[in-house]
Specification:
The protein is mostly helical and about 140 residues long. The protein is about 65% helix and about 0% strand. The model has no long low-confidence stretch (mean pLDDT about 85).
Amino acid sequence: MLTALSAKNKLQFVNGSAVEPDKDDSIHNAWTRCNDMVVSWIVHSVSPQIRQSILWMENAEEIWKDLRVRFFQGDLLCISDLQMDVAQLKQGEQTVSEYFTKMRIIWDELENFRPDPICCNGSYKSSELIAQRKAEDRAMQFL
């Protein structure tokens, strides 16, 4: 969804950078039209059950935040299953490239459930340490 919104130059309507202008502002109607379009795309991209819970929302950013809170919390069972999958994965008869690709897919799924925390104090040392530890973990898993 983020890729589609970015391709249509509408990502700012879900990430909060397209702030609604005042009602008397000359671009308010254009902003409303774009927001409504993004709302429509989101509403028509989710299951009917989810759709019912967001139909009353009029702001794309509000809908996006609501969906993120509900579905991006990180399903611990799924995370556990993925960690078990990567731990049990063996190269066997696969080429190194095939084996690495399978591991990479699992790592990417884990990254979606558990993205790196964003440092709020401006220090990049924490981010560098997290990235280093993640790279070390992956190197050990690949062995």
